[in-house]
From TrEMBL:
<dbReference type="Pfam" id="PF13306">
    <property type="entry name" value="LRR_5"/>
</dbReference>
<dbReference type="GO" id="GO:0005886">
    <property type="term" value="C:plasma membrane"/>
</dbReference>
<dbReference type="Pfam" id="PF12454">
    <property type="entry name" value="Ecm33"/>
</dbReference>
<dbReference type="GO" id="GO:0009277">
    <property type="term" value="C:fungal-type cell wall"/>
</dbReference>
<keyword id="KW-0325">Glycoprotein</keyword>
<dbReference type="InterPro" id="IPR026906">
    <property type="entry name" value="LRR_5"/>
</dbReference>
<dbReference type="GO" id="GO:0031505">
    <property type="term" value="P:fungal-type cell wall organization"/>
</dbReference>
<feature type="signal peptide">
    <location>
        <begin position="1"/>
        <end position="19"/>
    </location>
</feature>
<keyword id="KW-0732">Signal</keyword>
<feature type="region of interest" description="Disordered">
    <location>
        <begin position="342"/>
        <end position="365"/>
    </location>
</feature>
<dbReference type="GO" id="GO:0009986">
    <property type="term" value="C:cell surface"/>
</dbReference>
<dbReference type="InterPro" id="IPR051648">
    <property type="entry name" value="CWI-Assembly_Regulator"/>
</dbReference>
<dbReference type="InterPro" id="IPR032675">
    <property type="entry name" value="LRR_dom_sf"/>
</dbReference>
<protein>
    <submittedName>
        <fullName>Protein ecm33</fullName>
    </submittedName>
</protein>
């Protein structure tokens, strides 16, 4: 009896110690990781120390309620978690400049992903694929594809300055509740979002193709700057917020046959190969219409309400303003300007409407004014610098 008297408290104490070991964990070496191998569920965060060096294996852990975090672990070469299925909070990696592999064969659910400055990481070994995530922000990596990111829904989805990223196909993605942004990646990046039906803001820079055949509605901006594609097609898009096509040097065709409403401003400028603007179903623009370039045909015969201003300027003398002059007082609520034969077409804020003039990265807003997309461009510039420095390490 006396033996049991001391044994039972000892067992209880060991159980408490065991439970504590399955909480927040800082990993400085592989022995620390081995110490949590018996924790199928880890209730807390795993923080990989900045000083960690070499390969890391997180064996045995199946779920993490908190985050996986590593900031500045420049000597971490690969991370493997063969049994891990979910990360409840964030999966944040930054400055792992020698990381070549992420092997998470069973991972399907993550609270959010934020990876930055992983220049040696070229591919993901995510065999089952991550189908659930909140925000996904991937910047300054060596990834050549996003195979293994198989999202059904996403909040913020930003893919920036991944200079080797050549093709993206998120086949399962159906809805995005926040910004989708692709910029500064491989110049000929091809993007396929075949099942994306709804979203908020979508902006694209430096891409060679975009496929959104199922897209029906955006509540925010749809914008394209400096792309390399020749055609943009959204066969099922009925409404969007601000709509911008700016400085797309090869764009010759815009096809949105069932677009009926732009809930904001509509800007087309500096797209020198675009000859025809044909949007016969467009009825309402709640902001301004601001078209300038070398086009010779503009079909907006369905327009019944333009709540902002109207600026249409073209270099082509075969185009005329007769139709728009006829609806000037009944349809267009704001200021009106139409010039069908000008050698120097300009946008409503005085910027050149052709590529021969000074560049502009403005977009029309719901008030009809122009605002610069500087925030995204500033982020892109800083990220690009960080990436370049990381590659030198």
């Amino acid at each position: 009896m006396s033996f049991a008297k001391y044994l039972l408290p000892a067992l209880a104490a060991s159980q408490v110690a065991f439970a504590a070991s399955c909480g927040d964990t800082t990993i400085e070496n592989q022995s620390d990781a081995d110490g949590i191998a018996s924790c199928s569920k880890l209730n807390g965060d795993i923080t990989i120390a900045k000083s960690y060096s070499g390969s890391l294996s997180l064996a045995g852990v199946k779920t993490i309620s908190g985050s996986i975090i590593c900031n500045g672990g420049e000597n971490v070469t690969d991370i493997t978690a063969a049994s891990l299925t979910s990360v409840g909070d964030a999966f944040n990696l930054e400055g792992l400049t020698r990381l070549t592999q992420l092997a998470f064969a069973e991972l399907t659910s993550v609270g959010s992903i934020k990876w930055n400055a992983l220049p040696k990481l070229q591919s993901l070994n995510f065999d089952k694929g991550v189908t659930e995530a909140g925000d996904v922000i991937i910047q300054n990596t060596g990834l050549t594809s996003l195979d293994g990111i198989s999202l059904k829904t996403v909040n913020q989805f930003e893919i920036e300055n991944n200079r080797d990223l050549q093709k993206i196909n998120i086949n399962n993605l159906q809805n995005a509740t926040d910004l989708i942004n692709f910029s500064g990646n491989f110049d000929a990046l091809e993007i396929e979002l075949p099942n994306l039906g709804t979203g908020t803001n979508m902006t694209f820079r430096n891409i060679s193709s975009i496929s959104v055949p199922s897209l029906e509605k955006l509540t925010g901006q749809l914008g394209f700057w400096g792309t390399e594609f020749t055609t943009f097609s959204a066969p099922n898009l009925t409404s969007t917020g601000d709509l911008v096509f700016n400085d797309n040097s090869k764009l010759s065709n815009i096809s949105m046959p069932v677009l009926t409403k732009v809930d904001g401003g509509f800007t087309i400028a500096r797209n020198d190969k675009l000859q025809t603007i044909d949007l016969p179903k467009l009825e309402k623009v709640t902001g301004a219409i601001d078209f300038s370039g070398k086009f010779n045909t503009v079909d907006l015969d369905g327009l019944t309400d333009v709540e902002g201003g109207f600026n249409l300027q073209s270099t082509d003398g075969t185009f005329n303003c007769t139709h728009f002059q006829s609806i000037r007082k009944t349809v267009i609520k704001g200021t009106y300007h139409c010039d069908a034969n000008t050698t120097n077409p300009t946008t409503s804020n005085g910027k050149s409407g052709t590529s021969s003039g000074s560049s502009s990265t403005s977009s029309a807003t719901s008030s009809g004014a122009a605002v610069a997309n500087g925030a995204s461009m500033a982020v892109t510039g800083v990220a690009a610098f960080f990436y370049a420095v990381a590659q030198l390490l």
